Amino acid sequence: MNISSLTKMILLSMIITWVGCHSGETKKALTETVPEELKSVRVTDNIPYRSGHEKWVLDLAEPENFGEEIRPAIVLVHGGGWRFGSKQEPVFRSMLLYYANLGYVTVSVDYRLADDAPFPACIEDVKCAVRWLRAHAEEYRIDPERIGTYGHSAGAHLAVMLAVSSENKELEGDGPWQEYSSRLTCAAGGATPTEIGNPNNPWSEHPEWGPIGYISGGQPPILLLQGGADPIVKAHLVEDYYNKMKAAGANIEYIVVSGQGHDVSYSLATDITQPAMDQFFAEYLKK
Questions:
Q1: What is the spatial distance between Cα 55 and Cα 93, in angstroms, rounded to a whole number?
Q2: How far, in Å, CA of 268 to CA of 256, rounded?
């Protein structure tokens, strides 16, 4: 995404956020304010995917004038070390609109942070959000067999977990929509924590809470985007995960950007990572 496109997405985000408080006027307002070169999308904010907690909400952007066919969907998962962050961070808000303008029904998810509930609550929450999406696929004209995901940092961990851990029923939690699967068609992650040796992180005793616990050739396609100089998520750990998955026969791609830090695919090297993501989603979701 170039700077001009990003600026348009941010401006459009501000417009949609404002009109989102007037749901009956949203479609009219968007039609009047969206630049002609952009196709029209409708955004609905803070849809509950489960009742009982302020974090159990998502934002949904759907193409309005792209035809009547059912569409693929992309679930966006924000980062923040499992302790911070929001679905409406400017980068994720822009990405919500960006992919909706490419014809995807795009969802940005909030989930309980570590101070709200201990692991693996965040995993359970994003899985519940995906089940909700499948339960409402007909309403939003979504193809339930073509749902992908992208996350950055902690969000990348959750995004990849959505793809690889569907057989672990203990991670589904006690939320609703249990008759629907949380498995996704493909997953892209930027700076993906596949395993962490920090003793303060609960993964040390629970490999099933991280992607490293699901080495298999039968997993959905995965794209890993990594900064070679990332000081937080070490490239050698991501590469080790990639090598193990590749050896198992998985459909996995690893792009490392030399000299880049933690925010590759978020705010660094997007001239490399964004086209790679676009191609990845087009290959596995548009067909």
A1: 16
A2: 12
Spatial separation of the C-alpha atoms in residues 238 and 78, rounded to whole Å:
19
Residue 52 contacts residue 137 (beta carbons within 8 Å): no
From residue 266, give the alpha-carbon distance in Å to each of 38, 97, 156. 23, 15, 11
Dmax (CA) of the chain: 54
Strand 252-257 vs strand 41-48: parallel, antiparallel, or unpaired? unpaired
Q: What is the pLDDT of residues 240-251, one digit of tens each?
A: 999 999 999 999
Q: What is the DSSP letter of 170?
A: G
The pTM of this model reads 0.86
Render pLDDT for 107-138 as a digit per residue (tens, 0 to 9).
Answer: 999 999 999 999 999 999 999 999 999 999 99
| Whether 180 contacts 197, CB under 8 Å | no
CA 261 – CA 258 distance, rounded (Å): 9
Q: Are 121 and 154 in contact (CB under 8 A)?
A: no
Low-confidence spans in the chain with pLDDT less than 50: 1-36
Cis peptide bond upstream of 176, omega within 30: no
Query: Measured between alpha carbons, how far is 129 from 132 in angstroms, rounded to an integer?
Result: 5
**Helix H segments across the chain?**
3-19, 26-33, 90-101, 121-135, 154-164, 235-247, 270-281
Compute the distance between CA of residue 130 and CA of residue 126 in angstroms, rounded to an integer.
6
Please confirm whether the linkage preceding 207 is cis (ω < 30° from 0).
no
pLDDT value at position 21? 34
How far, rounded to the nearest angstrom, does the alpha carbon of residue 196 sit from its chain's CA centroid? 21
Contact, 58 vs 107, CB < 8 A?
Answer: yes
- Tell me what pLDDT residue 161 has: 97
